[in-house]
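Researcher: Here's the sequence for the chain we discussed earlier.
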Amino acid sequence: MFELNSYFFILLNITSGLLSLLGAVGIFISLIIQRRVSRLQDIIEEILDLSYEESANTTVKIQNLIYKYQMQYIFPAKPIKTVIHYININIAFQLLFWSWLLYLIFRGPFNWVSLIYLWPLFAMLFVMLFYRKLIKCTLNPVDNRLFNSFIPPPRYLRSIAFLSSYVNVAVKTIMQQARPTPVLRQKSPDSWEVLLKEELPLDDYHYYFVLKDRSGILFDAYGHVLIELDQDPITGKPRPTARNLNIPLGIIEKKLQLVQPQAYFFVFPKGEKNPITFTYLLEKIDTVYFVPTTPEVSTNHFITYHFCGENTLQILTNEATDDIAKFLPEKIPAHGMRRYQEQGGQEQVIESKPYID
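Model: Thanks. This is the structure I predict for it:
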């Protein structure tokens, strides 16, 4: 027979030993996470530095950095499961020992007031479960919002809304690296598809698009670009970026014989107050209107805007002297909604999603 008082101390020592091991695991994991966060922050800083290289083509560099970021961001699944299993077993033994101690020292009869003495056990259980969630989120931050503020997912590195939140970033240069280019493709004699092609798939921004020629505005579109890239079909890993993205902007249901066609693409970054304007000159070859030259990129100071509830873009002032922005709506909602309208026609919603060539 063990002496009861000594047995209590033995259980308490075992419990404190398990708590010490649990704390040591937490310290070890925190050192790993600290080193990983440092590497991820360095990669983000490299991408932000590239935003100031206006004359150089940094598209490939940005894509390689995004892939490198994902490699550092995602831990192998097996070590994560091992650590989580260890924490689960540790918590289970802690509860077992504490419950056994309470059972040994309990003296009847039972009354409901006795439950007051159990609140430290429930409080400690809550703390340990939160500790488990904290460790799990730091080891596997995928789809966890707890650490998105300083360990953002790889897809955030192509989000204009996220990148423009940094003070030291040139959003206009990053949009130029995406090379947004409008293309008109003839689907039938009386139907043309309007596409926006991006070499680097940047998203999470509001836009307004206008197509005009000598006769005036023929087509306009607006909305919010939001891209969801599918997983790699072979490995099943998430793809943070891709090449040659096509964003459907709308359909023109009539014959086109454009004279001196021009296109204007307004981008409304979240961290700015004036939109970025891309001006294109179009040429026709066979059944395609394309952009043969580099577009003119500028900041339109005649238009100011801000964002209100649910990430909705609201135009504050529109003092443009030309007619290209006269159909610009006062509000543009988010969540990937895209709409278009032909001259004299009704506004329609685009159902087709962006896709990769």
